[in-house]
Amino acid sequence: MGTHLKYILASLLCMLVSTACSGNNQSDNRLNEENDKKEIMKNEGKALVVFFSHAGDNYSVGNIEVGNTKIVADYISEIIGADQFEIVTHKYDGMAYTPLIKLAQEEADNGELPEYEGDVDLSQYDTVFIGGPVWWGTYPQVMFTFFKKHASDLEGKTVIPFTTHEGSGLANCVEDVKAAFPGANVQRGFSIYGHEVRTNKAKVEKWLKGIRN
After folding, report:
1. pLDDT per residue rounded down to tens, the chain (213 residues)
2. Domain encompassing residue 138
3. 18 and 68: one domain?
4. How many Cβ atoms sit within 10 Å of the Cβ of residue 81?
5. Which of 67, 81, 90, 150 ranks highest by number of CB atoms within 10 Å?
6. Pairing of strands 83-86, 190-193
7. Who contacts 89 (Cβ-Cβ below 8 Å, separation ≥6)?
8. Can you tell me the distance from the alpha carbon of 77 to that of 165, in angstroms, rounded to the nearest whole number?
């Protein structure tokens, strides 16, 4: 066999081995991701993410098409396979940030409960994540409309609050969720800065993996 032919055959063999290894690595990565998801769900049962998210004019991130909390909710669904129910109201559509926070303060001061669209059956879920932005020290008032409507529906279930914020952390959200659902097993909450949700999916992944441990 000529030296040139030997070189070609050796090169082809290296390419085949490299391709096989690459394919195996991709398969291993997919398997590890599926195992992570199964482990979380084994501990937490069937899960739902209930959330409110505000698109449009937001503090720090400007005018956004997808709200910060929606992005976190999508991460949770992608990582652990959770279903979603988005609390939707059009009351705040098109509002600039300053009048929005003024309206939010008035709603909180007056204990208003804005209506939202649609609803969800919570009976089929073992774990419910509850997420939203922090407006005036807690979740937006429209979320309290949901809480009031479903006050007895989370009895004995695991509830995990999370927030997006620009300095408030969890504020009073965990305490307010505990007050709204006294029969639920409310877990330690999770918070993430709104301006980092688009670039820090790893922080959400780390949190979710911590839940299973």
Report:
1. 554 434 433 444 444 444 444 555 555 555 555 544 444 444 457 999 999 999 999 999 999 999 999 999 999 999 999 999 999 999 999 999 999 999 999 999 999 999 999 999 999 999 999 999 999 999 999 999 999 999 999 999 999 999 999 999 999 999 999 999 999 999 999 999 999 999 999 999 999 999 876
2. 45-212
3. no
4. 14
5. 67
6. unpaired
7. 52, 114, 115, 116, 117, 142
8. 20
Q: Are residues 19 and 73 in the same domain?
A: no
Burial class (CB in 10 A: 0-12, 13-18, 19+), 172: middle
Choose among 79, 80, 58, 75: nearest CA to 67: 58
Question: Quick one: 56 and 24 in the same domain?
Answer: no
Q: Helices marked H in the chain — which ranges?
A: 3-44, 68-80, 97-110, 141-149, 173-180, 201-212
State pTM to two decimals: 0.80
12 with 99, same domain: the answer is no
